[in-house]
Design goal:
With about 210 residues, the protein is α/β, with parallel strands linked by helices. Helices cover about 45% and strands about 15% of the residues. The protein has a 5-stranded parallel sheet, sandwiched between helices. The protein has a 3-stranded antiparallel sheet with strand order 6-5-7. Bound molecules: adenosine-5'-diphosphate (ADP) and zinc ion. Adenosine-5'-diphosphate binds next to helix 2 and helix 3.
């Protein structure tokens, strides 16, 4: 399976990719995760990317494109779930060339479609486990605020720097300006599946699987 997950920040790309990668036994490639790992390790790539991420801006295309190109050459990446890439038309063009060279065409582009106010609510309440990396939402953790550890492993939950409300508004603007044009771009390929994504992760997963058949 070679799939692109498309959708605004907070639409659930990372959560769905986590669920889908087990079903389809393929690599989950999250450009955001790769940047955050590099930022944590203070690599040159991480420090550069961090400047843009903390403002809610996109990392420049040439940096992202080079990084994805390297990742796709790794042996586990013949099947993949792309989470967070492409995010601009130039990225989509470069991605198309990469896949052509590798002779690995895309099977599907899944758009997670959701109302913008729901997104802001989700993002300001989003927490990530420092230990296992799982994504949680305080809204669906039901009054467990006295012991706000990871329900799965007990690890510390933290809020990403770029999930502060002002930064979120900027990320949504960037999505609308630069990424949403990819919807009609991919619609032309006949491989676009639009999924309404405001319900629970499990329900959204079922809708994706039903659409893909
Ligand atoms: P979200 O989808 O919730 O915004 P991500 O983890 O996908 O979160 O991305 C976090 C940040 O990493 C983005 O706001 C952006 O700065 C940077 N980033 C990730 N992927 C890309 C990309 N394909 N192009 C440019 N910047 C990216
Ligand atoms: Zn955990």
């Amino acid at each position: 399976m070679r799939m692109v997950l498309l959708g605004a920040p907070g639409s659930g790309k990372g959560t769905q990719a986590d669920l889908l990668k087990d079903k389809y036994a393929c690599a989950h490639i999250s450009t955001g995760d790769i940047f955050r790992r590099n930022l944590l390790a203070k690599t040159e790539l991480g420090v550069k990317a961090g400047e843009f991420m903390n403002r809610g801006e996109l990392v420049p295309d040439e940096i992202v494109i080079g990084m994805v190109k390297d990742r796709l050459r790794e042996s586990d990446a013949t099947g993949f779930l792309m989470d967070g890439f492409p995010r601009t038309i130039p990225q989509a063009e470069a991605f198309g060339v990469m896949l052509e060279e590798l002779k690995t065409p895309l099977d599907a582009v899944v758009l997670l479609d959701i109302d913008e106010e729901i997104l802001v609510g989700r993002l300001t309440n989003r927490r990530t486990c420092r230990a296992c990396g799982k994504i949680w939402n305080l809204l669906s953790m039901k009054g467990d605020n006295l012991s706000p550890g990871c329900p799965e492993c007990g690890g510390e939950l933290y809020q990403r720097d770029d999930d502060a409300e002002l930064v979120i508004r900027n990320r949504l603007k960037v999505y609308n300006d630069q990424t949403s044009p990819l919807v009609s771009w991919y619609a032309k390929t006949g491989k676009l599946y639009t999924i309404e994504a405001s319900a629970s992760p499990d329900e959204t997963l079922k809708k994706i699987q039903a659409a893909l058949g």
